[in-house]
Amino acid sequence: MTLAQARQALGRLDEVLEKMNVLEAIGQAIVTALHAVYRVLWGDLITIPLPGGSSLGISLLVLILIPSGIYFTIRTRFLPFRLFPEMLRVAKGKRGGSENGAISGIQALIVSTATRVGMGNLVGVVAAISAGGAGAIFWMWLIALLGAATAFAEATLAQMFKEKDPLYGGFRGGPAYYIHHLFLKRGGKRKKSVIAALFALSGLICWCGISQVIGNSVSSAFENAFQIPPLYTTLLLVAVAAAVVLRKNATVKVLDVMVPVMATLYLLLTVFVIVKNAAQLPAVFQRIFAEAFGLRQAVAGGFGAVIMNGAKRGLFSNEAGSGSAPCAAAAADISHPAKEGLLQALGVFIDTIVICSCTAMIMLLTPMELTRGLEGMDLLQTAMQYHMGGFGVVFIAAVLWLFSFSTFIGILFYARPNIAYLFGDNWTSQTLYKILALVMLFMGGLAAYTFVWDLGDIGVGLMTVFNMIALIPLAPRAVDSLKEYEKTLAGRAKP
User: Fold this and answer.
1) What is the tens place of the pLDDT at every residue in 267-276?
2) Which ranges of the chain have pLDDT less than 50?
3) Is 193 helix (H, G, I), strand (E, B) or coil?
4) 171: which strand partners?
5) Most CB contacts within 10 A, which of 190, 203, 208, 280?
6) Chain-centre distance of CA 134, in angstroms?
């Protein structure tokens, strides 16, 4: 190589390095901007001083969702308590939809339950107790009771504004569609609502982030339980997921079988653990309520952490208000919109009051000296090892695989109507998003990218904000639907 050629090569190298520096600067700017958005959504927007040197930091999402839950609970006249028997009656309905490709109300509940009864019930509960102690469980229960009415409202509206799905058959809808109705009346050439498009885009970002978290959680659990290298676990997970999601209508069929089986197995094992340790239950409940109201934490300065960790994890787990579950609710072929609303309200109860409580009991029935200093899946697996020996660790890994797999399938079902809203009715955009989600699933299984985890949190936060912009103004429509449904019930009850 001549001196001139060497200089030329060095010049090209300098250009490449300069471009790489520019790209790195752009990447850092994007990450900084996203972290700023994260702080606005999930950071402490308001800080309230509490006795004992503690403080209560309230995030924007908590400020939105808890008052909204109270509002919907009052507007529906305490629906979660008053109509719980009716929720159970509706859940006994038929499983198949009448329209070509449509699903039934109970199948829509199974799809939404697949994503609710997922990592939030394991990882979310563990995180709440790790950061906020036993008292966080009480606040998770309270958030669930408030969230049930919110879940009713958004699912009912999703049913009211659903439309035919020309690609998959049956129906589609969700917040993007009722937001569109609120801001842009249909008629003539269809236009997109900016808020509806932002909701759909936020959802797609969120579900990509969750895909990465799923891959990481599963590979980590299997490495701890079986010493299987993450690459092998991830390849199997991605291969099985691809076989399901890349087919046209395999999603609901798989979840229809998978969700009841995995939930039943998990409930049976946890009930066994609870019954085996029944004598300790009074002490556990005493601990939950004592720590919930800060009798110890107020002195230690951690009362705010108890409330906010329980509230945040409760909101994350049951998803009420985020706009995810309505994407499944809209697909149901059901006789009255309020019936699907009642089913989705029941889904919140199943998720938080039943499944999350089971996970909490497993940990709280474990001697504190064994779990002190532990957090995350290490805490849960240690608790299961105490109760069930080596089988417990293996069982939790298997359950996490099932829960996470069902969550992945469920979020891609959620993505369908939002992809259609943004990009129109075509298989190209649907397939490309599925491939992107599978890539994120694979990446997550090999390494934990904190940036992508935050991306999922940002996505669900933005979804909630955009969803609530329409949900509050449209609330009277959902309430009127409930009143109409209750009139039919009253008429049916007359002799």
Assistant:
1) 888 888 888 8
2) 187-188, 295-303
3) coil
4) 164
5) 203
6) 22
